[in-house]
Write a structure and sequence with these properties.
The structure is a single chain. The protein is mainly α. It has three helices and two strands, in the order αβααβ. It has one domain: Ferredoxin Thioredoxin Reductase (Alpha-Beta Complex).
Length: about 110
């Protein structure tokens, strides 16, 4: 497995944004911070696992938290942002991030 660079992670996020019809947070410092976490997760596990949640390191078990996670669109619709604040709603663009509840069931955590 070839390690990903930060530039490759950013390209991945831009592709996800277009393909999934999501909006990347305009706060580039925040996006860079999450992108660094995604890069570390990819370079550890071989897939883009949400760096804001505890992962198993098993692609099947972590499928729900592989970026964009299974909860992303519902979180953006309900709270104006996803759990890690990487993606936001059009209405929330430029607003300060807030803490939102985690939709992931406890039994899915290691």
């Amino acid at each position: 497995m070839a390690e990903k660079t930060l530039e490759q992670v950013r390209a991945f996020l831009e592709a996800v944004e277009k393909k999934q019809n999501l909006i990347l947070n305009p706060d580039t410092d925040h996006v860079d911070s999450v992108a660094e976490g995604l890069m570390e997760m990819y370079n550890s596990f071989g897939y883009f696992c949400c760096p804001c949640r505890e992962a198993w390191g098993d692609r099947k078990k972590d499928r729900d938290i592989t970026c964009p996670c299974s909860y992303c669109k519902a979180d953006v619709e309900e709270y104006g942002q996803c759990y890690c604040g990487l993606f936001v709603s059009d209405d929330s663009r430029g607003k300060e991030l807030s803490s939102i509840p985690d939709r992931r069931d406890e039994e899915l955590y290691p």
